[in-house]
Amino acid sequence: MTLKAGVVAVQGDVSEHAEAVRRAGEAHGRETEVVEIRNSGVVPDCDLLLLPGGESTTISRLLHDEGIAEEIVAHVEAGKPVLATCAGLIVASTDAGDDRVQSLDLVDATVERNAFGRQKDSFEAPLEVAGLDDSFPAVFIRAPVIADVGESVEVLAEWDGRPVAIRDGPVVATSFHPELTPDSRVHGLAFFENDGVTLPEATASDQ
Question: Which of 11, 27, 101, 205 makes the best surface tag, with the fewest CB within 10 Å?
Answer without folding.
Answer: 205
